[in-house]
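Structure ticket #2291
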Amino acid sequence: MTVRRNTTTKALALVMAAGLTLAACGEGGSDDSAGGDSGGSEGGGAEGTITLGFIPSWTDGLSTAYLLEDQLTKLGYEVEMEELTEAALLYTGLAEGDVDMYPSAWPEVTHAQYMEEYGDQIEDLGAYYDNAKLTFAVPTYTEIDSIAELTGNADMFDGQIIGIEPGAGLTAATQDSVMPTYELDGDYELVTSSTSAMLTELESAINDEEDIVVTLWQPFWANSAFDVKTLEDPEGALGEAEALHFLGTEGFSEEFPEAAELIAGIQLDDEQYGALEDMVVNEYGEGQEAEAIDAFLEEYPDAFDTIVTEEG
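Resolution: structure written out below.
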């Protein structure tokens, strides 16, 4: 059973409890329920309610949240899907136990500041993908290939870098590292609003064959859906590649041992991750996430070792 909450009131409460301005991206049963062979396992009798907190516009977390919803429900858990708007809310919620899991965190680099603040109250449940990175991108017809070439070319882009949510780690990296490193502060404004607004601006610019520079990341379906190229980052201002992790509130694996075992076994390669995100976001889309997960599991029945194939 899955419950979807109205999250507006709770999100506001989390902000107040955290004292933050948004500036940055049941009990278990038998430990054997999650299975262990690549052929899949039958669901067990796990019990309890697990709340998954995710940001819908960040489609790595959206995709893995619905994958976990399917798998945890098959184990026997009740799953609540908590839609939030900022990474700050997610880490605060994890630390305070208001959400049980963040299903696609960037704790090594992008969200390192949150881990420094809340890490003692958060349990790392494992990494599921190991080659994530922050990027800047422009249309393929734009005549620059490096972030360094933005310097002196502000007129090409109307002096704007189009970003995403103000509280995103990518936004913080752009403001605190990229812009000072490449001396862009005086010539460019970082425009922030939301991921969907950034993609709308990107699509409009490409349709009109105009130059635009946006903040992006990999893996992300937009890199293949739009005619864009990733700009080189010769100074490494956006940081190194990092792994995407499942994070739980402190004591998660003790309270939900079957879930922790299942989650620890999930590792996706580029092909598997790309297929998962494409099916959830593009091929099926909003309102058909369950069908997308069914299709993914049918196409990749051995996607990970602890896969659950039948309802508990």
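Closing remark: Confidence is low (pLDDT under 50) at residues 3-39.
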